[in-house]
Amino acid sequence: MRFGDGTTVLVTGGAGFLGSALVRTLKEHGLAEENIRAPRSRDLDLRRWENCVAAVQDVDLVIHLAAKVGGIGYNMENPGSLFYDNAIMGIQLMEAARQADVKKFVAVGTICAYPKFTPVPFREEELWNGYPEETNAPYGLAKKMLLVQAQAYRQQYGFNAIYLLPVNLYGPGDNFDPRSSHVIPALIKKFVEAVESSAESVDVWGTGAASREFLYVNDAAEGIALAAERYDKPDPVNLGAGFEITIRDLATLIADLTGFTGEIVWDTAKPDGQPRRCLAVSRAEQEFGFRAKVDFREGLKATIAWYRKQL
């Protein structure tokens, strides 16, 4: 669908990390601010059916970003609520959107939906060839059910729902709470604090052998906006930058960029999570012209600078 005059968009999670970037991007794509609804979770609990019904009234497009999410430790402590909250929010919202004749629904899933041992780079065709990594399987499977729902609704009702799989995101505005943050903000916080306190060492979870791919939040927002405008097929689509870096190399890079010169101590009693993550990104480029633009090192510099300004 094209973003024409009067197109009204609901962005769930629109006040969050990715949501804030997406709202800015939608404006750049020509949407008027008054036509973008981005309610905060405290004002719109999507676990309640009546709130989902109210949220989609007089809306043309729903982009569902809202999620309960965290790093490995948080996932291991809260598997039940992560499964329930993420599943119920998405399932109810999509059903409410279908009943309200919303023109298009964009479900934003997660890299955690992929099987633990997926051939690298992860191709969309591999999505069902195994069980997700155990520490984040409840979250990953809850979000994966929205792909099943989207495809089923397209088949039975002709409902235009699409499903995107973004890789790990990072950038200014990320969550730096150590109880629930992902690896990049967690490492930035540790190394910045170590520099300020003149600490001689920093402890990092795992062996450092696992690899990850990271997508700058503004790039992710651009990919979602392009898909909302141009993509109308049932097949899931990866959103990524098309590279991977080991956690060991990532920690070394962040230490360098923050000015930390001490020792990095690896806590090998802690889990590594999924062994490797790197996406095949050709489908997104072919289908709706998306390619990540932000250089990883430059993106990290911007994220570190933003975090230091918050201190």
Question: Count of helices?
Answer: 10
Question: In terms of structural class, how would the helical and strand content be classed?
Answer: alpha/beta
Strand elements, count: 12
pLDDT < 50 runs, ≥5 residues: none
Largest sheet features: 6 strands, parallel
Portion in beta strands? 5-15%
Rg: 19 Å
Query: Separation of termini?
Result: 42 Å
Characterize the overall form.
globular
CATH homologous superfamily descriptor of the domain at 9-171 and 213-243 and 277-294: NAD(P)-binding Rossmann-like Domain
- What is the string of helix and strand elements? EHEHEHHEHEEHEEEHEEHEHH
CATH class category label of the domain at 9-171 and 213-243 and 277-294: Alpha Beta
Q: What name is given to the CATH topology of the domain at 9-171 and 213-243 and 277-294?
A: Rossmann fold
Quaternary status: single chain
What does this structure look like?
This protein has 311 residues and is an alpha/beta fold. Helix content is 42%, strand content 14%. The chain has a 6-stranded parallel sheet with strand order 2-1-3-4-5-10, with helices on both faces. Strands 6-9 form a two-stranded parallel sheet. The protein has a two-stranded parallel ribbon with strand order 7-12. Helix 6 (183-197) packs across helix 10 and helix 8 (247-258) packs across helix 10 (296-310).
